Amino acid sequence: xxxxxxxxxxxxxxxxxxxxxxxASAQSRHHGEHARDGRHxxxxxxxxxxxxxxxxxxxRSHRRAxxxxxxxxxxxxxxxxxxxxxxxxxxxxxxxxxxxxxxxxxxxxxxxxxxxxxxxxxxxxxxxxxxxxPFRYHxxxxxxxxxxxxxxxxxxxxxxxxxxxxxxxxxxxWVRHYDDVLLVDVRRGIVLxxxxxxxx
Length: 200
Prior knowledge:
This is RcnB family protein. The protein is mainly alpha-helical and 200 residues long.
């Protein structure tokens, strides 16, 4: 009887001792699987973050490239419009200068020759009359220097507008010389223009 009891006690003690390693082994396997799952998730998260960072960096690079391209395009358009504006401005300026020179030439031509049409309609105004001088007639040409006696103030035409003569500049006077009219630089005594047979 005592032997049976002792054998039962030994069996009861041996069963937990054999069960403990099995339980510990199962717990160890579960812990290892949990650790592997944790590492897997951590690696997956790290890869996701790396992809997101790389995608964001690539997107940022694309945005910067687009911005640079937009700036270059804007600068090209600005330079193009500026060149076009300058070209158009120069064209208009040339046209304005050409028109101004044309009108000025017309005015000069009219001013230089207005007396002709006026004389044809007012012949009595241009009659020679009784005009005398203490010197003989000379056929003067433009550019020659003449003596003071030929352009003294008594021979000035004081109302050139009446005969439609062109206006004079500084130090210039219209002077009558018999039937001719001279435009004289009275400061130097140089004949600037000669209108022969102005009076008749």
